[in-house]
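Bumping with the actual sequence this time:
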Amino acid sequence: MSVLDGHVLITGASSGIGQAMAIELATRAQSLVLVARRADRLMALSSRCRALNPNLVVHVMPCDLSNVEKLSELIHAIQSEDIAVTTLINNAGLGQIGLFEDLDPTQLEVMLMVNVVALTLLTRAFLPGIVESKGGVLNVSSGFGLTWMPYFSAYVGTKHFVSGMTASLRAELSGTGVVISQLCPGPVATEFVAVAGNPLGGSAPSWIELSSEECARIGLRGFERGREIIVPGFWAGLSIWLGRLTPRFVLRIFYGIIGKVMRKRLK
């Protein structure tokens, strides 16, 4: 059985990549556990998924993953109701853009909770069952999990955590039959910028930006094939891999120049 054919929990399922993954999996998964803050959107998504597959079992579990108590309640509810989770897709995430000294400390804490703490605790909670069922974990990281850039400092840090944890966990589970992958997209048409803010202005060129549906399809296909790192989109993939091949001192000089120019614009 494919890693995508069992009981799949998706966080951040109310919009963007998570929503697109839920729709993509509706016709093949045995059941879906949909997690996000916005209950109304989850209910609408549940109806849409069941319309695609009347036999699909859908569990709607609204939860604010930035609240550790609510997160604990979510984990307890899933475990106490004996909901099987054979595959975990840690998709929920958010960012902040701007000079680090200008970022809202409260929003920084929220980002760290969702991007790092929730992802870690959910993985720890459901990994024993995933190992037993030979399922998988797909962590939605970012191209910034493989490189860095000024004005995304804290967000980059959270995604480096995700990339490092995923690579280590994959090695740890080698030979168990469990699939551990990370999806590292470049620009995707989601609500990311609306939430993160954009004091720098501008947006990603349309030729490099993927739709959430395309990103979800590529990510799920790579996960099913057992790939370690999935970078969707030719141009985004090219820029990320070129960045990884570029000597670090060259990147420091280049990003240092960008940092100085942008600081003058923002101050």
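The tokens above came from a reply further down the thread. DSSP finds nine helices and nine strands in the chain.
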